[in-house]
Amino acid sequence: MPDTHTPQKDADRLRQLVALRKVRDRIDREYERPLDVEALAQGANMSAGHLSREFRLAYGESPYSYLMTRRIERAMALLRRGDLSVTEVCFEVGCSSLGTFSTRFTELVGVSPSVYRRDAAGATVDMPPCVAKQVTRPIRIRDARITEPPH
To answer: pTM surpassing 0.90?
Structure first.
């Protein structure tokens, strides 16, 4: 079977990966702003459907899921501080619906934001920030793989 890679195809793929990285970087920088897939796609000169497909291929999740994961990560840090209410944290991280925020938080973290706030306050006080970020990173409950030990 002939090789289907050409210098032009490789260059096009590289340009697309650069555009996807810029979208991901924008989400990382602007997670608290109102962002939607249409706006992200427009900024990358792609259709929303194409951006969603290619982003999922490159990063393993949709742009919306990535955005919500960033928001929930930040919310976890704010809730651990303990000086803001769940509602204040919801709006601080860019969510406009407390219900959607609570549902997504619970899906990613495994407990509601209020339970997390109560139980996690001060849990990372003596940890270096880089360690706290790693050990508190949300993992999608539905995506977590439970492996059985070998028999």
So the answer is: no
